[in-house]
Amino acid sequence: MMAFYKHGNEMLPERRGVFSSVFKYPDQSEPSLRVIRRGRRFGRISGRRLLFWVFSLAVLFSIFLAVFGLKMLFHGKLESGFLSFKEVQEESSLGSDGAEKPKRKPPRPHFFPCEVRFRVSVEDLVEPKDFTNFAQFSLGYVEREEKNSLSHPLVPRFGGHQTLEEREKSFHARNQTIHCGFVKGPIGFPSNGFDLDEKDQTYMRACTVAVSSCIFGSSDFLRRPTSTLISDYSKKNVCFVMFVDEQTLSKLSMEGNIPDDRGHIGLWKIVVVRNLPYKDMRKTGKVPKFLSHRLFPSSRYSIWLDSKMRLNTDPMLIIEYFLWRTGSEYAISNHYTRHCVWEEVLQNKRLNKYNHTAIDEQFIFYQSDGLTKFDPLDPNTPLPSYVPEGSFIVRAHTPMANLFSCLWFNEVDRFTSRDQLSFAYTFLKLKRMNPDRPFFLNMFKDCERRALAKLFRHRTVLSPPAR
Length: 467
Prior knowledge:
The chain has helices at about 20, 30-70, 85-90, 165-170, 200-205, 230-235, 245-255, 280-290, 290-295, 315-325, 340-350, 355-370, 400-415, 425-435, 445-450; strands at about 5, 10-15, 140, 175-180, 210-215, 240-245, 265, 270, 300-305, 310, 330-335, 390-395, 440-445, 455. It is α/β, with parallel strands linked by helices. It folds into two domains: about 30-90; about 145-150 and about 180-455, Alpha-Beta Complex (Spore Coat Polysaccharide Biosynthesis Protein SpsA, Chain A). An eight-stranded mixed sheet has the order 7-8-6-5-9-12-11-13. A two-stranded antiparallel ribbon has the order 1-2. A two-stranded parallel sheet has the order 3-4. Helix 6 (about 230-235) links the parallel strand 5 (about 210-215) and strand 6 (about 240-245). The longest helix has about 40 residues, at about 30-70.
């Protein structure tokens, strides 16, 4: 029953507010109140269901859009005026001016050491009796070059001026005199570089086993061999020599690494090199890396490690494992990712490791002289990889190992300092030209190299030289 109130001469229906719907008035019956409550409950239930269905439809629409790439209208119109979902993602990777945003570098892959079964101790090590049963011949080295002529004056070079004819002959494993660095100019000309103090040369001439490294241009920190892992025998009988230039020596002194009275910092004997032979510090570093038989003329074995590595293994155990046990005269690890020179060339260009034109000249020359791609499926492939990881080298100072080292250095001297480009060519040509005189090279796994020493990053990355 509806209530009325009088307004002037008219009877109007009464408008009840909130209180009239909550409180019970005398003229309201119980049935009417129940109807009102049901209406309110029905309204609340309908509102919840409506929100549920709206949310469900929104979720389904989002899934459909993501999966099927529903075309939507965006401010960057194509001919049709629409962009697909994939196209929108591609457009979002561009800046406001249309330039592509720099992509994040992929994470660096991680490589780990593997187990290397060294002997427990150096006490019972004995050099195999037949270990010296390698190719025997006599090598001499060009010590000095004279003037060519007055019309073509000779400009002295550390590597000398090897002709292509002399280069070709030098690959024969026979009695001969070859270019192998340390070439002096005519009498009266200044030194061609890599000058050492006489006391240091006397020390190095007495070494029978040498471990060496170098830092030029303050490119690295000094990383000392882990003394607790080096035997007393090796500490007494192995020479640990670190070659540095004067700039590096000054930097080390500022950092608190000052040589003692004997010229040592830890196990390292610090040998200062003056008058560096190359402006390219990387190329200068190839002198102690490849020519250890020239720097240590009395040494029977040598180990080279890059300055980014800290030696964690006794050197005599290394020589026994990689040379004596395998009957090898030279040992170097394969690269951890690349195995073909073609891949190495592309990587050097991509990272601007060296002048691209110089790389092309070297690579074209090698292809014209028979260098082929590495084929991992070829059962006759002489090496497990054509690209080495040259930061760790173990070698006996045999005639063949010395010849290979000189030949490899001459390629670096003639072309680029990227020695990984010239390794396979040098080895394959030496093998091809001496079928009756094998060269016993052990290319071991990179994970074994990582077990020998702890790897660090260089302090600074040296810029490639200008062409």
